[in-house]
Amino acid sequence: MGQTHGEAVALRSVSRRYGSGESAVTALDAVSLAFPRGTFTAVMGPSGSGKSTLLQCAAGLDRPTSGSVTVGGTDLTGLSERRLTLLRRERVGFVFQAFNLLPSLTAEQNVALPLRLAGRRVPRARVREVLDRVGLGERARHRPGELSGGQQQRVALARALITRPEVLFGDEPTGALDTRTGGEVLALLRAVVDREGRTVVMVTHDPVAASHADRVVFLTDGRVHGELAGADAAAIAARMTRLETHPC
Ligand code: ADP
Questions:
Q1: What is the pLDDT of residues 100-136, one digit of tens each?
Q2: Share of the chain above pLDDT 90, in %
Q3: Domain layout of the chain by residue ranges
Q4: Ligand 1 centre from 50 Cα, in Å?
């Protein structure tokens, strides 16, 4: 829709080092990246290239050693743990490879959870609307164990969208799904960007999944190593192969 402008998330010269001395590891090395509102970005790179660390820092789950992260214009650097928790709860959505639903709650109770945790009213119509949007309006009373993997991930997506987050982060969200159900989840991610102007940032190792994004950012050794815009799966796979065989 593009009715909002600017950056949903921006990283400015973000470094993250683990440990110290000889055993120190630089997981992110002065990464600067912006994720404009209303766009879908995939992040790819060999194992150990810093993808998870990037996602964690961008989402306020981890703090950079240096540099700054802004979410919707709010600089996370100086925020207390409490403020950071509130920001994550209200302005950031997550979907993971393992769907992380609470097994004892129904689909609609799982979707309502972020609002309950925030002490907010839970408008039933809103919960139904979000479940309808992911095609699960008829399954609102089902528990995760009564749903397929693809359906569970769609519940997780509805749960991530209920707060109308500034940005939705996905960590291999289709990693546990077969091609067809994974494709359904990717089409839904595409739709929340195209129809609602939301921002999606997804880590994936799958070139087909990445081809649903507007652009693919490649990481190697904690640094941005180029990007591709509007590329198909074959072009993305070719670039990944080059990165893995000739990283420099
Ligand atoms: P990716 O997601 O691309 O596989 P990660 O972000 O998990 O990469 O890791 C980047 C680098 O940082 C790797 O060398 C990894 O071993 C290291 N690393 C990640 N988390 C930690 C941690 N908690 N302690 C020490 N090293 C870590």
A1: 999 999 999 999 999 998 888 889 999 999 999 999 9
A2: 87
A3: 40-49+85-245
A4: 6
Instruction: Please answer whether residues 12 and 58 qualify as being in contact, where contact means their C-beta atoms are separated by less than 8 angstroms.
Output: no
The protein residue whose alpha carbon is closest to atom 27 in ligand 1 is 18
pLDDT in tens, 191-209: 999 999 999 999 999 999 9
Phi and psi dihedrals of 130, rounded to 5? -70, -40
Please tell me if the CB atom of residue 53 comes closer than 6 angstroms to any atom of ligand 1.
Answer: yes
43 lines ligand 1 (CB under 6 A): no
Q: At residue 75, does pLDDT exceed 90?
A: yes
Nearest residue to 95 (alpha-carbon basis) of 134, 128, 126, 66: 134
Q: Whose CA is nearest to atom 15 of ligand 1?
A: 48
At residue 191, the pLDDT reads 95
Q: Over range 126-152, report the average pLDDT.
A: 95
CATH of domain 40-49+85-245: 3.40.50.300
Place of tokens 């090395």: 29
- C-alpha 51/C-alpha 202 separation (Å) is 10
CB of residue 9 inside a 6 A radius of ligand 1: no
